[in-house]
Amino acid sequence: MDATLDSESAGADRYAPHADDQGHRIWTAERAALHRWLERTTVGLAPMYEAAVRMVMDETFPARVPLVAHCVREIRNRLPDALLGPVANSRTEYSELASAIHARWVEDGWPPDGVARSAAGAEPSSAGPIRPEVSPELLRAVGDLVVGHVAASENYRGRARRFLEVVGGAAPPNYVVQAWVQGSKWAVKLAHVRTTPLPAEHEVDLASKFLVFEQALMVISNRSYENMDALDEILDAANR
Question: What is the secondary structure of 169-223 as a DSSP string?
């Protein structure tokens, strides 16, 4: 069989509107269009989206909540690079900053395990609670971490603003930028494996949260000027 026809047949089978065990359609026409757009626009995000769709529709899939959250987080973080182009590496290296703080912490005589224990039986003075002295070096190391964190946050917000401007063809309102930045909080929160079971509501809410995420992506994939109003409504609903 011709390789091109074979490939097209495989693609058609992938998007066939078959149903899962609960009778839900896995690949709708809208999902198929979004997946094709991701394939054309990005490297690596289309498979992440496909994996998330399959897991959302399969309620028996093990550990699906953190896995779907990881896919959502990656798509949200990487999609601006696809539309705007990658930026120079300005990433805040939290591990390096934390190591610098730890080194200064130990030099100041605090326990290496990071636990600042109060003296046994110590009572606050009449002037107020005891304020331990901190060396300028330790304070400077903590300040570097704060500066790096603020810069990273502002960097992300600025990139989100430019990304949404490309989507809507005009400068986005501040609340839309805020909604986009905050809209992935659930994914960031749930993307890591925990030592304790997740509350049951995360399983219950997964499909609805993912649907809002999909709707926003579908608006973005169309990239027409009138999409900004629709994106406003979707992102506002995601943060209620």
Answer: SSPPPHHHHHHHHHHTHHHHHHSS--SSPPPHHHHHHHHHHHHHHHHHHHHHHH-
Range of the domain at 193: 14-113+134-238
Report yes or no on 126 lying in a domain: no
Please give the single-letter amino acid code of residue 85: G
Cβ-based neighbours of 105, under 8 Å, separated by 6 or more: 114, 138
Q: What is the pLDDT of residues 141-195, one digit of tens each?
A: 777 666 666 555 557 777 778 888 877 777 877 877 777 777 667 888 888 877 8
What pLDDT digit, counting tens, does each position of 13-48 carry? 666 555 544 445 688 889 999 999 999 888 889 999
Residue 234 in any domain: the answer is yes
Of the candidates 210, 213, 221, which has an alpha carbon nearest to the alpha carbon of residue 179?
213
Closest C-alpha among 143, 136, 135 to residue 109? 135
Query: How far apart are the C-alpha atoms of 155 and 89, rounded to whole Å?
Result: 11
| Structural domain count of the chain | 1
The torsion region of residue 156 among left (phi > 0), alpha (psi -120 to 50) and beta comes to alpha
Q: What pTM does this model have?
A: 0.64
Q: What is the pLDDT of residue 21?
A: 45
